[in-house]
Design brief:
Blueprint: H1 8-14, H2 22-27, H3 31-34, H4 36-43, H5 63-70, H6 76-90
C-alpha cells in the first residue's frame, strides 16, 4: 500500500525556514505596508453589485450547451443569460 502524506524526514529535508522568535514576530509589518502596490492589486476584486440584478445559482447544463457558449470565449455566462432572456421574451 502506498504511504500518503509526508514524513518528518521529508519535511526536514526541504525545510530551510527557522522557527520565528518573539523578536522576529515583533519586527513584522503588515503586507500592505511592505508591498503597497501588490496589496492594491489584491484588493481590486469585484465588490458587491451596486444594484443587485443577478442571483448566484447553480444549474446543470448539457455539455453541448456549455461547449457552444464557451467556444466564443469569455463572457459565456452572460451570453447564456441573454439567450434565456430572449427565450422568455418569445414565450
Amino acid at each position: 500500500m502506498k504511504q500518503r502524506g509526508y514524513t518528518q524526514a521529508d519535511l526536514d529535508a526541504v525545510s530551510d525556514n527557522p522557527e520565528l522568535t518573539a523578536e522576529d514576530l515583533a519586527q513584522m509589518r503588515p503586507f500592505a505596508e511592505v508591498f503597497p502596490q501588490l496589496a492594491d492589486g489584491i484588493r481590486r476584486a469585484r465588490g458587491k453589485q451596486k444594484t443587485p440584478t443577478k442571483v448566484s445559482t447553480t444549474i446543470r447544463l448539457s455539455r453541448e450547451v456549455v461547449d457552444h457558449f464557451r467556444s466564443a470565449g469569455s463572457g459565456w455566462q452572460s451570453r447564456v443569460d441573454r439567450a434565456l432572456k430572449e427565450w422568455i421574451a418569445q414565450h
